[in-house]
Amino acid sequence: MMELLQALEGSAFSTWVRESPSIWAYPTILTLHTVGLGVLVGANWMVDLRVLGFARAIPGSVLARAFPVMWAGFWLNAATGALLFAGDPTTKGTTAVFMWKLVMVAVGVVLMIALKRKLHGRDIDAGTAIPGVRALAATSLVLWIAAIAAGRWMAYV
Amino acid sequence: MNEALVVWLKSTWISHAMTTSQWAWPIAETLHFIGLALLIGGAGLIDLRLMGILKSVPVSAVMQMRKWAAIGIAINVVTGVLFFVGAPDQYINNPAWYGKLLFLLVAIVNVVIFETTQGERMLRLPPGEKTPASFKLAGAVSMGSWFLVLYFGRMLPFLGNAF
Predict the structure, then answer these.
(1) Which residues, at least 6 apart from B88, have a Cβ–Cβ distance to it below 8 Å?
(2) What's the burial of A92, exposed, middle or buried (CB within 10 Å: 0-12/13-18/19+)?
(3) A44 Cβ partners below 8 Å, 6+ apart?
């Protein structure tokens, strides 16, 4: 495994991501990664908050529209995240906090899919509550905080 | 004058705490990114609605998310001030920092102008109705300037020398 990471780190591409003085290399990749975070987590939080009972004037039937936005943020960050990893594989690949971040992002995405399925075809505005939907939204909200914290912490290890 | 300000800020206990504590800076950064996501989520929703997306939802309904955007801004102003007090010298001569402040100002002026001239009309706009050009412009300026605030914030270490 370590040989593989070292081989990747020695590649021209990895060196470009890490060392290129171009504003289009590391700085732009990192900026896009931050944009993706804001779009994914921001859209997911708005749905979480609506499910938890805030902004009730927003019809529950439009919440489904937010999920493609979340996916756009997710794929942007999967792509830019892969590039950032390629630039620094031996450190990131051996750092516990990076593994924690991946786990939390994975769980966050699973919760996002679960929330979409729970809301699908059902109206959260109707009198009958959807079982477990609030717990799901609350967990999702907290989990993204943990994922952001893990991501930020990678700068300090 | 700037020199004196930097020296004075660095002599404060807040500045010491920000730079000597192992936890203060990373926690403030984490909060800053949480605020960022709240702001993009809340303001982004409102801006998209003003630009004409989700016409079936009344503008007054999406405006109920405004307090979450405001909470995001408040978190980021507080943590942003902490960064500045902690290490003023890495911002005061940093072109990216002035870019960030400029577009923060644009975003705020845009909101104030929109609220004072179109605020009433906005809340009365019936669902399904097209948003007028002034609404679309305000939404686009807001979204554009917030993303530029993010861009220049992220560029602090690259256009300047901030950590």
Answers:
(1) B5, B6, B9, B10, B15
(2) buried
(3) A66, A70, A108, A112, A140, A144, B41
Q: Which amino acid is at A104?
A: M
Please, are residues B95 and B160 in contact by the beta-carbon 8 Å criterion? yes
Cβ <8 Å between B44 and A153: no
CA of residue B160 relative to chain centroid, distance: 20
CA gap A100, A118 in Å, rounded? 27
Judge: B33–A34 Cβ closer than 8 Å, yes or no: yes
- pLDDT (tens, 9 = 90+) of chain B, 163 residues, equals 688 999 999 999 999 999 999 999 999 999 999 999 999 999 999 999 999 999 999 999 999 999 999 999 999 999 999 999 999 999 999 999 999 999 999 999 999 999 999 999 988 888 888 899 999 999 999 999 999 999 999 999 998 877 7
- Cβ distance of B61 and A38 shorter than 8 Å: no
State the burial class of residue B2 (Cβ atoms within 10 Å of its Cβ: 0-12, 13-18, 19+).
Answer: exposed
Residue A156 at interface with chain B, using a CB cutoff of 8 Å: yes
* Chain CA centroid to CA B117, Å: 22
Nearest to B39 by CA among B131, B104, B106: B104
A57 touching B, CB under 8 A?
Answer: yes
- Could you count the other beta carbons within 10 Å of the beta carbon of residue B23? 9
Which of B94, B78, B101 has the alpha carbon at shortest distance from B18? B78
Residue type, A125: D
Q: CB count, 10 Å around CB of A51?
A: 23
**Residue contact A43–B61, C-beta within 8 A:** no
Domain ranges of chain A: 2-156
